């Protein structure tokens, strides 16, 4: 089975995930659940509520029931697996947890009548451990509800899956065919020593070099590359290659090619810490190979263009099939 943790975390704050409600957050805030960084801990850091933790922690429950938190996914999609991480919670973790999911239309939708589906059954947890639970539910979800039994602390929830964009916001428009939020993914790359190439496809601007793709220093002949599956087949009219924050480790040059070797952007010099924009005219493509020479990093990759008729049909068909 493919490691689902290589798929995007649909709930992470960086992609717009938000913890919208929780039954209790007496010790630590619910928002910590979707922080993008690994959970941290400093012993003997006592605040007015006790020892501080980088996670969500509820009071000791003295009545029947259990605690829960609702997460609105930043990117709706098909969930392939969930990680419930109790990092640093050793004497105050919940013994069991479960996860439910639902799909509603729009971020302001009322969840009171939502059809919640259990995607992770009530399962035992250990302290200070990342628990990975595969999910088999071939449908689109927009929210998850994390249940802990009965109370305690959970550092992070990661909801890994495939992005499913709403075709209503792509059809007939000029769109970024390489955007993760539109369904693009990096399928392969030659090197991801410092950071994942999927970072290039994230929304917004990279705040530092760690939020882009960066390779190790190449000591042998050749160059590094990443293969991007576009949101859907289409034609590209503008390529944006961004090396922001990469001041001493930007590539010397870049090129774009189709899988069959067709040149989309010829080998072109790059400047460090700069956004480069190139008008191009491509045939219909479904995948683009980004070649950097010889190594280095890219903060963002944008490929602006139009979906083909076949691309629009595929997106609409997939969205209709998964939204049930």
TrEMBL record:
One annotated GO biological process: allantoin catabolic process
InterPro entries linked to this entry: Allantoicase, Allantoicase_dom, Galactose-bd-like_sf
Gene3D superfamilies to which the protein is assigned, alphabetical: Galactose-binding domain-like
Enzyme class: hydrolase
Keyword NADP: no
Keyword terms of this UniProt record: Hydrolase, Purine metabolism
Gene Ontology MF term list: allantoicase activity
Keyword Hydrolase belongs to the record: yes
Pathway: Nitrogen metabolism; (S)-allantoin degradation; (S)-ureidoglycolate from allantoate (aminidohydrolase route): step 1/1
EC number: 3.5.3.4
Reactions the enzyme catalyzes: allantoate + H2O = (S)-ureidoglycolate + urea
Domain Allantoicase positions: 16-163, 183-307
Protein family according to the UniProt entry: Belongs to the allantoicase family.
NCBIfam families: allantoicase
Protein's name in the database: Probable allantoicase
Natural source organism: Actinomadura montaniterrae
Gene designation per UniProt: alc
